[in-house]
């Protein structure tokens, strides 16, 4: 791919992870994911972030530099916004070949450069407000934004163009064609697709660090930003407020517990006896004009469900008792909710059992751990009767009332 021009002397060097790869070796990316590096060229040349050392990605990155007429030997600076190896995997080899390149990063990055890549020389630790003048009016200003995503994370603002290189913040999954790198190079449907992929990315990667995202957005408010260039996904220039507000909303879900008019149903069924109750759930949710997202475990990857769980204030868990405990795939979902700090939600659990219950005890423990407001469970032996189906509808109504009654604002 040819590099994308952001403005005179500033380019995106973008490559894509294939849809078959798992992001972080864990999360499905059926639409792929871009990794965005950048070139800022004044009298001197700086690269902002490199690329994962995976398959041909370093060669593709190098090829895009070559097409810009940039030889590695002419690069003076490498700005490391974040050490996660999706952006630095190639760093060890790059610096070995180009030991003259001076690395700018936060002080927390310094020991990581040594531990990851045995790089200990020619490093300049920065503090918020420090600048690097590249000549020809190009000035990079640094901002420490710890824990968005790792503790050493920073962002860079190029003063003459107003471009914020925001690292993982404001990023999304989804491969990006360099020829269509901007929010105004795709149509509204595609933009919405990237926004959905931004939510999936956020819930998988960033959710646990939401208070830091809110803090970073506040910290950057006074900057005259004209363009936002994240390390994944589209570059925003037509309407930067769209991605800022989206991320502000995503981060607020950490305290609001999600949209009070949305419920995510996570369900699993061994022989169909729990599944038989789902239409009662759907009917009661529809009657209340609430949005329902559904995910079946283990058939669907958890990474696909977490985005809907994150944005929903209400959760319905439908699962049978399995050997005196919870249906294991749902326990796995709750474990991930805990790891991603998806707290303070409102939850109803329903499900069948064969000879005796048992899931309920474990569900209660998870409810306490997640600080979820739990409705009384509705369980039945074997197939749900008409009476039990009515009880389920009442349980859903009670859940919705609880979601609407409580303003959960708790850090
Ligand atoms: Fe895109 Fe946290 O690395």
Describe this structure in words.
This protein has 411 residues and is of the alpha/beta class. It folds into two domains: 4-255, Metallo-beta-lactamase, Chain A; 257-405, 3-Layer(aba) Sandwich (Rossmann fold), CATH 3.40.50. Helices cover 34% and strands 27% of the residues. It has twelve helices and 22 strands. The protein has helices at residues 57-67, 85-88, 91-97, 109-117, 188-206, 210-220, 240-256, 278-287, 302-311, 328-339, 359-369, 386-405, and strands at residues 4-7, 10-17, 22-23, 27-28, 33-41, 45-48, 75-79, 102-106, 123-126, 131-135, 138-144, 154-158, 163-167, 227-230, 259-267, 291-296, 312-318, 321-322, 325-326, 346-353, 373-374, 378-381. 47% of the residues are buried. The structure holds MU-OXO-diiron. MU-OXO-diiron is lined by residues 82, 84, 86-87, 149, 168, 231-232.
Descriptive keywords:
Rossmann fold; binds MU-OXO-diiron; metal ion binding; 411 residues; 7-stranded mixed sheet; single chain; 34% helix; 6-stranded parallel sheet; 22 strands; 2 domains; Metallo-beta-lactamase, Chain A
Q: Return the structural class.
A: alpha/beta
Count, helices: 12
Multimerization state = single chain
Separation of the first and last Cα atoms = 44 Å
So what's the CATH class of the largest domain? Alpha Beta
Q: What is the H level of CATH, i.e. the homologous superfamily of the largest domain?
A: Ribonuclease Z/Hydroxyacylglutathione hydrolase-like
Molecular shape: elongated
Unreliable spans are none
**Attached small molecules:** MU-OXO-diiron
């Amino acid at each position: 791919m040819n590099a994308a021009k952001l403005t005179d002397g500033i380019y995106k060097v973008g490559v894509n992870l294939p849809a078959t790869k798992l992001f972080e070796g864990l999360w499905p990316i059926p639409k792929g994911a871009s990794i965005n590096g950048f070139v800022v060229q004044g009298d001197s040349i700086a690269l902002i972030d490199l690329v994962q050392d995976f398959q041909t990605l370093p060669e593709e990155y190098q090829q895009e530099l070559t097409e810009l007429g940039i030889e590695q030997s002419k690069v003076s600076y490498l700005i490391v916004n974040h050490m996660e190896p999706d952006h630095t995997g190639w760093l060890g080899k790059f610096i070995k070949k180009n030991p003259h390149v001076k690395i700018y990063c936060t002080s927390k990055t310094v020991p990581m450069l040594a531990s990851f890549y045995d790089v200990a020389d020619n490093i300049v630790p920065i503090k918020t407000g420090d600048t690097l003048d590249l000549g020809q009016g190009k000035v990079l200003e640094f901002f420490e934004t710890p824990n968005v995503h790792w503790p050493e994370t920073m962002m860079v603002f190029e003063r003459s163009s107003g471009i914020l290189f925001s690292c993982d913040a404001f990023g999304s999954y989804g491969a990006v064609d360099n020829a269509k790198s901007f929010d105004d190079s795709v149509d509204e449907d595609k933009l919405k697709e990237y926004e959905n992929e931004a939510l999936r990315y956020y819930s998988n990667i960033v959710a646990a660090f939401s208070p830091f995202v809110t803090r970073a957005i506040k910290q950057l408010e006074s900057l005259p930003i004209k363009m936002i260039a994240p390390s994944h996904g589209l570059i925003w220039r037509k309407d930067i407020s769209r991605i800022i507000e989206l991320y502000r909303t995503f981060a607020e879900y950490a305290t609001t517990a999600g949209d009070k008019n949305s419920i995510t149903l996570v369900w699993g069924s061994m022989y169909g006896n729990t599944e038989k109750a789902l239409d009662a759930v759907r009917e009661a949710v529809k009657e209340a004009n609430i949005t329902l997202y559904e995910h079946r475990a283990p058939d669907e990857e958890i990474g696909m469900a977490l985005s809907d769980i994150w944005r929903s204030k209400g959760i319905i868990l439908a699962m049978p008792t399995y050997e005196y405990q919870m249906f294991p795939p749902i326990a796995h979902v709750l474990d991930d909710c805990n790891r991603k700090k998806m707290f303070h939600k409102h939850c109803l659990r329903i499900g069948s059992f064969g000879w005796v219950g048992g899931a309920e005890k474990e569900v209660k423990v998870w409810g306490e751990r997640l600080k979820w407001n739990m409705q009384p469970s509705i369980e039945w032996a074997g197939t749900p009767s008409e009476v039990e189906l009515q009880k389920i509808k009442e349980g859903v109504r009670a859940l919705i009332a609880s979601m609407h009654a409580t303003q959960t604002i708790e850090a």
